[in-house]
Amino acid sequence: MNIVVMMAGDNKDPSESGSKYPKMLTEINGKPMVEVVIDNLKPLLDTKNKAIFVIRKDDNDKCYLGNIIKLIIPHAHVITIENETSGAALTALLAIDSMDNSSSLLLVNGDQILDCNLREILQEFNQKSVDSGVITFKSVHPRWSYAKINDYLCHVLSKPSQTFRRYLPGSLQKCSC
């Protein structure tokens, strides 16, 4: 499996608070966010799966983020990008040359922790022989994308809508598209 962890988004939150470190190094219970995210993925991050991290070149140059990732996961492949992209889909595409095209793909936001059994969810997707799956969570905040879910279909929308139930890509509600 290819596991692409996207950590190249904007750093506005920490810098606005006066932090000199990138968002990925913000501490959560005494650990940098990057370590917390990796710990969350540990059940999947063995050497038979390809761990690919996409990070900002600026974060790597200033704080050695790529080296930190490799300290935690020595077999990780780190890709640095010059500029912020227009979104997660484009960021994921930047990792395409590092992927094994014969393996499945898991895309993960680098600043979100999923409180669920990822291995179990992925096994369920495999058992159902679905082409893709989305892990969602409930929210009404307009910063997220939204998903309309029924038994057979999942539609993702980038802005909130009255017609969409408030499930967002990222948690326990499973949607097989």
Give the secondary structure arrangement, pairings included.
Elements lengths: L1 E6 L4 H5 L10 E2 L2 E2 H9 L8 E7 H7 L1 H8 L4 E5 L6 H6 L11 E5 L8 H10 L5 E6 L7 E4 L4 E4 L9 E3 L3 E4 L1
Parallel strand pairs: 1-4, 1-6, 4-5
Antiparallel strand pairs: 2-3, 7-10, 7-11, 8-9
Provide a quick synopsis of the model.
Helix content is 25%, strand content 27%. The protein has six helices and eleven strands. Strand 2 and strand 3 form a beta hairpin.
Q: Categorize the overall geometry.
A: globular
The biggest sheet amounts to: 4 strands, parallel
Rg to the nearest angstrom?
A: 16 Å
Known CATH architecture of the largest domain: Alpha-Beta Complex
